[in-house]
Amino acid sequence: MHNPERESPTTAILRVLRVSLHVGFAVLLVVAVIRLVTNGGATQLALVAGLGMSAALAAVYLAGTVLEKRHSSSPDAFDPTPYARWWLAAVMVLWLLLLLVSSDFAWVAFPLFFLQLHLLPRSAALAAILASTVLLVGALWFHGRETADGGLQLAMVLGPLFGAAFAVVTGMAYRALFLEAENQRLVAEDLRRTRAELARTQHDAGMVAERERLAREIHDTLAQGFSSIVLMGRSAEKALVDGDMDTARERLKTVQDTASGNLAEARSFVKGLRSPDLAEDGLVSTLRRLCEKTETEAAARGTALRCRFELVGTPVELPNTYQTTLLRAAQASLANVWAHAHARAAVVTLSFPGTEVTMDVFDDGIGFEPPTAGAAARGDGTGVGLSGLRERLAALEGSLDIESAPGEGTVVAIRLPLPAEDPA
């Protein structure tokens, strides 16, 4: 259905001109038919032929306009464009035949001039209009021979010439508006296509970013928690076999606490909230408890790892993203310590030296070659800790430095610039 609220001014003008053209054609054709019927001088044969060809002309004209309208409203409908010139030829032939019947059909030529300008190339359209004008003048002269004046009158020439000239000027203006409307339509379609592609790109980018966020959260929370649960479960099973009920109960209690913590973490990062530990106790207390938990998990593996937390300077209130990033960094670093470093001691140091917050995680383990830290993730889903940590820090304009060498331990150094205070 036509919606004028969404129609551009150029399109509205074209629509009015198009409707006026069709209405003008219909009115002129009806007037000519009425004059043919009411003119007593027409023979029976001319009357029948005129009525029949008028009906044919009206049917052909109507069919072409209806098909063109349907296609413009619904591009999936039949496209009459390849047959437009054949349709114009049929209309012109029927009009010329009607001219032989009566001169009253001469004025139908003016709407047809617009059709020629619209459907034909400019040079061909001008030639067709000139030929139609000559035929029109000839028809007027032919039918005027029997009048009192007889012969070719000046009005018979000037009328069609002025009409043709007016039609050419108006038709060219219509054609310019039509081309402008087509350009606007193409630009609008390109804009809609670009917007759709941009929306798809943004959607895909959002999906990738969300997958990366979930991968980091799962690695730094759930994966480590499940690993701890498996480790504590095995330790509890060994304690039961050895008859050490106190140790078994202690390990099972750790399994319960870790499972509850994992469940709370899963709910929090799905909702995009801060870690439940941070919400309850704050960063300092959470890091201190993390060190204690690391000692417990190392003991379950049979490793005598001492892990302590140190605070340097006066803590300042940090945004949730900063606290979460530092906590995940400590979790990932300590998980690597008890899982891979074979260390006897680890120290987590949180410092507030003025315009930044720093955190160093030191261990005296076997060390490694730092260039391998940026290697790609392994096929089993591990090996993403350091790369995920770098991404977290990069989002906050922070930095990650790793100092290590085989047999010389490791230091993971994290720097985060403190956010500027709000003047308000």
Q: What features would you describe in this structure?
A:
- With 424 residues, this protein is α+β, with helices and mostly antiparallel strands.
- It contains 11 helices and 5 strands; from the N terminus they run H-H-H-H-H-H-H-H-H-E-H-E-E-H-E-E.
- The chain has a 5-stranded mixed β-sheet, with helices on one face.
- Helix 1 runs antiparallel to helix 4 (109-119).
- The longest helix has 89 residues, at 154-242.
- The radius of gyration is 44 Å and the shape is rod-shaped.
- Mean pLDDT is 79; it is low at 1-5 and 373-383.
Strand elements, count: 5
- Spatially, the strands of the biggest sheet line up as 1-2-3-5-4
Query: In angstroms, what is the radius of gyration?
Result: 44 Å
The helix content, as a percent range, equals 55-70%
Coarse structural class? alpha+beta
Distance between the termini: 54 Å
Main beta-sheet strand count, sense and barrel state = 5 strands, mixed
Poorly predicted ranges (pLDDT <50, ≥5 residues)? 1-5, 373-383
**Count of helical regions:** 11
Give the ordered list of helices and strands: HHHHHHHHHEHEEHEE
Average pLDDT over all residues: 79
